[in-house]
Automatic annotation (TrEMBL):
InterPro entries for this protein: Acyl_CoA_acyltransferase, GNAT_dom
Name under which the protein is recorded: N-acetyltransferase domain-containing protein
Any Pfam family matching the protein: Acetyltransf_1
Domain N-acetyltransferase: 10-187
PROSITE patterns, sorted: GNAT
GO MF term set: acyltransferase activity, transferring groups other than amino-acyl groups
Gene3D superfamilies, per database record: 3.40.630.30
Length: 192
């Protein structure tokens, strides 16, 4: 039997209906406690109402093995307030940074199930997610890891993402994050 990978855009109704399955991918991929499931489902459904909302999933023989979604950045969003705080703290924002935070697509979530990571699924989802976006940049955050030695950093760097903030702590989270950005549209680059 041949295994068939499909990267599929989801309509907002499809996303909200399937949010429990999609959140399960997130919880498994991140190693989070299942106790956050109901809260995350509600948050993801709320996020689907943001302007510019776009979502994709990766299906492997009809099994969901990946999910990614995002929406237009907005001065009204908590996340942009956090970005601006971080940029001020490091002495900015510079003119270039200000232009980025005024015109970006926020990649809110990108997750691939363990066992399927490192096989190009995240890359394919990112290209589909960011295809035809009407913003000049995409921005995302990812937990810091020593020497960027994980699949997530490898993916983002291969797509051309560069540092906007490093070792940044979002309010209410004790972990350090890298905030990365890239100009849109994505350019096809060779993988390592």
């Amino acid at each position: 039997m041949k295994v068939s990978l499909l990267i599929r855009r989801l309509s907002i109704p499809e996303f909200t209906t399937n949010a429990p399955v999609l959140v399960d991918v997130y919880i498994t991929a991140m190693g989070y406690s299942p106790t956050i499931r109901d809260t995350r489902i509600a948050v993801w459904r709320r996020n689907s109402q943001n302007p510019g909302f776009t979502s994709v999933c990766a299906l492997l023989d009809d099994q969901v093995v990946g999910v990614a979604y995002g929406f237009y950045g907005s001065p009204d969003h908590w996340w942009q307030h956090q970005l601006r705080r971080g940029l001020r703290h490091k002495g900015g924002p510079t003119t270039a940074e200000l232009e980025i935070v005024q015109n970006y697509f926020e990649v809110a979530e990108v997750h691939v199930m363990p066992g399927f990571q490192g096989h190009g699924i995240g890359r394919k989802m990112m290209f589909e997610l960011l295809r035809e976006q009407q913003r000049a940049h995409a921005i995302l955050s990812t937990p810091e890891v020593d020497q960027e030695s994980n699949n997530a950093f490898g993916l983002y760097r291969s797509l051309g993402f560069y540092d906007l903030l490093r070792s940044f702590r979002f309010d209410g989270d004790l972990r350090d994050f890298a905030v990365l950005t890239v100009e849109l549209p994505l350019k096809e680059t060779k993988t390592h």
